[in-house]
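PEP-CTERM protein-sorting domain-containing protein: structure, please.
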Amino acid sequence: MRKQIVLVASLLAGGLLAQAQTQTWDPDGNSISDGGAGTWDLATGNWMTGATWVNGSDAFFGTGSYNVTLGTGVVVHDLSIAEGAGTVNIQSAVDDTALTVAGSSTWNLGGNTLHMVNTTPDTRLSMTSGETLTVTGGGTFNTGERPNDGTTGLWDVNGATLDFQADVLIGNQRSIGEFALVKLGANSTFINQRNAHQTFNNNWEFGGGTITFQNNWANNGNITVNGTVSGYADEFVIDMATPTSGNRLVYLNNSAAYTAGTNRIAEAVVQLNADHGLSSSVLVLGGVSGKNSYLNMNGHDQSTRGISNDIGNTREIRNNAAVTTSTLTVDVEAGNSFTYSANFNGAGVINLVKTGDGTQVIQRASGHTSALDTLSVEGGELVWNVGGSGNSGTVNVGINGTLSGSGILNGATTVAGNLMPGNSPGTLTLNDALTLESTATLTLEITGTDAGLYDVLLNDGGDTLTAGGTLVLDTTGYTAALNDTFTVFENWGGFSGGFDGISGTDLGGGMSFDTSNLLVDGTLTVVPEPGTLGMLVAMGGGLIWIRRVFMV
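Here you go.
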């Protein structure tokens, strides 16, 4: 049998190695760790039984509130706080004094707050590259508000990893940002604690649940993320608000390596400084009443699994790069449907591409502030319920795509797939030419003779409708009557081409649609007999049938 021996060594003040022991904080000497203030150094007996600190030991704090003044040369391994409502504040006696962590260690917060105070003087943390500090037990790890000047106060943790498995992590680029990797455990929140722009060059890794980025300062608390973001989150929330502030910028300078169920911009301006800075997840704008949410594409491309919006004030997807086009690909999975009723805006233009077998609804009665450059439907269904000036740009519907809705399209529209005007039924307005290619299927729904009970393709006048492919007349729920007439192609300047086939003309009860004027004046008329005009003529006891065929 082979024995495996694991030696856990800790650094001692004299440079010796020994197994870690646990020392309990007891500055008042009552043999109970129940709060209190004192100095943590190598000479003061503020530990249980009046002991002085032995470097490399594990530190234990009981329940209560603690104000600990850190002396020089202190080395700690594991640290734990008893469960209960309490706070351990650690602040150095001399500016830039560091608490050194011996090896890979675990700090259990017990649901409390551990605060490394960084006002004046600064309190630093020091770790060896390649080691990991794991923070567990719920609660808050506050790594400090800010260094007191611009050149000192950096945590000496370069190359180390912070594995945060508690609730709330507070810090800034000079503390949290100095780790090589920060792992955010399930349902944890990182709060940027600095009233100036912060650049984080470290990498991040998500560990599931809801991961939230927040801001804790009223002014200028912007964040630049230069590192790679990996891992998984059910929802990644960017909420950069404070009680007295407006929006805050988050700059994403790398392509995302994480996956998520949803990316939510609750209250912030998120700017892409690289293609696909967010994961290709469902994008939600909003979630905070009365607040603003923006995605600045900034001339870059982004893919999503759908776009939608929640409560809020101004919510916009915009391209703020005036000379560079951004492409937003909406790849909705089969069985899913999302509705985006917020705005598109910006000095630059956006190409919107719908893929996937699911449904994306774009609706906004007043239209968008800025027009899309192109609107492409390559798969699934895009429901366009945008009013105002339409703002669609040039429209292309691929052979596997379906375009429907009761909005306004203001660009030339070419359909190789399915066109289904209306919202069961309704009017789709086109302010430019419509071309139905040979593979196209145009479905017109007719349920009654009143306006709004049958589909209409409406033009603003002067444009040409070029017919092709198949016309399907869906008359489910319609009770036909002779001479009923429907103008389904309204106000077009002219027609060309022809349909290769028309289905649904037989209305039953000896009636049919006459389609002979469809590409003349855009009308369908109910006439006797399905596809024929049957005339029974008695001539000397004989029967003569005169057949009339209606074709377009």
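Notes: The radius of gyration is 34 Å.
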